[in-house]
Automatic annotation (TrEMBL):
This is GNAT family N-acetyltransferase. Residues 11-169 form the N-acetyltransferase domain. SUPFAM superfamilies: Acyl-CoA N-acyltransferases (Nat) (SSF55729). PROSITE patterns: GNAT. Gene3D superfamilies: 3.40.630.30. It comes from the Bacteria. It holds the Pfam family Acetyltransf_3. It comes from Sphingomonas olei.
């Protein structure tokens, strides 16, 4: 599925390329980052290339998060339509980019985009022990909607899943909250 580029004040979100893999490998090989991911840490840059390269039949749109100041890939975003008007999101940030507000900025701008495109609901599926992700979702206004017990069989065992949801009417757009405007980019 095609992922058109978009941007925020400090970040550019665009389709991933093979050239992004070495920078993204920092995150995808990290045991702490990948602890709550559905797949184990990557063993090589080739694993990261295969993982972030969009597939023609994929139902997910994928973006790489690029820090404008350094032109370096610092993470990934994804969005997939589960039902008409209902979008699931996923995100990952390199450890070197943590603590700078990039996660909130990238995910918030993605939510702006999805609601502008007509989504009525956005949700995320998190491990109940993934406190950083839960804090980000709560900060963005998501509400805990449910617990799915023994939902995922992962590299760390069978895990529960917490579903977090946000409705369009509940969303405080990043464009209003930060005085930014959603900018579509043609890269």
């Amino acid at each position: 599925m095609r992922a058109d580029p978009f941007e925020s004040e400090r970040l550019l979100m665009r389709a991933p390329t093979h050239d992004d893999a070495p920078a993204l490998y920092e995150a995808y090989r990290d045991q702490r980052v990948m602890r709550f991911w559905s797949s184990p840490p990557h063993e090589s840059v080739a694993d990261t290339i295969a993982y972030v390269t969009p597939h023609v039949d994929d139902q997910w749109r994928q973006w790489v998060i690029v820090e404008k100041a350094s032109d370096r890939a610092i993470g990934t975003l994804a969005a997939g339509e589960r039902r008409r008007g209902v979008m699931e999101i996923g995100y990952l940030l390199a450890p070197s980019a943590a603590g700078k507000g990039y996660g909130r900025e990238a995910v918030g701008t993605l939510i702006d985009l999805l609601f502008a495109e007509g989504a009525r609901r956005v949700f995320a599926d998190t491990d109940p022990d993934n406190q950083r992700s839960i804090a980000l979702l709560m900060d963005l206004g998501f509400q805990r909607e449910g617990l799915l017990r023994a939902e995922w069989h992962t590299h760390i065992g069978v895990r529960d899943s917490v579903i977090w949801g946000l409705l369009r009417d509940e969303w405080q757009p990043q464009t209003r909250a930060r005085g930014q405007r959603l900018r579509s980019s043609r890269v």
